[in-house]
Design goal:
- α2 runs antiparallel to α3.
- It contains 4 helices and no strands.
- It has helices at about 1-20, 35-55, 60-85, 100-105.
- The protein is mainly α and about 110 residues long.
- It has one domain.
C-alpha cells in the first residue's frame, strides 16, 4: 500500500508541475559531461559495493581492497577531469573555498 501512496503523490506532483510551472523562455546552451558522469558513477558504485560486501567478504580481502582502490583512482580521475572541463558536472574548484570545504568534510 505504501508504494501506491508514493505513486499517487508522484503523479499529483507531475500534474501540478504541468499545470502551474511554465517553461522558461531563457535558453542557455549546455552539454552533458559524459566523462565526468561515468567516472563519478564508477567511483561511487565501487565504493558502495565494497562497503556493502566488506563484512561478508572480509575487509582485508583482495576484492574489497581492490574495489576501494579502483574507487579512489576513479574519483581522483573524476576530480582531475572536472578541473579541466569548461562545463563540469561538479565544480570541484568550489572546494578551494574554506567554508564550502569545511561543510562538505563535516557532512
Amino acid at each position: 500500500m505504501i508504494f501506491w501512496l508514493g505513486l499517487a503523490v508522484i503523479l499529483a506532483g507531475i500534474v501540478a508541475l504541468w499545470a502551474f510551472v511554465r517553461e522558461s523562455p531563457v535558453r542557455s546552451p549546455g552539454r552533458i559531461d559524459w566523462i565526468g558522469a561515468l567516472l563519478l558513477s564508477g567511483g561511487l558504485s565501487r565504493s558502495c559495493f565494497a562497503v556493502s560486501e566488506g563484512r561478508g567478504w572480509g575487509w582485508a580481502s583482495a576484492t574489497v581492497v581492490g574495489l576501494f582502490a579502483a574507487a579512489a583512482v576513479l574519483l581522483v580521475a573524476f576530480a582531475a577531469a572536472e578541473v579541466r572541463i569548461r562545463q563540469p558536472l561538479v565544480d570541484v574548484g568550489l572546494l578551494r573555498r574554506r567554508a564550502i570545504l569545511t561543510s562538505n568534510v563535516a557532512a
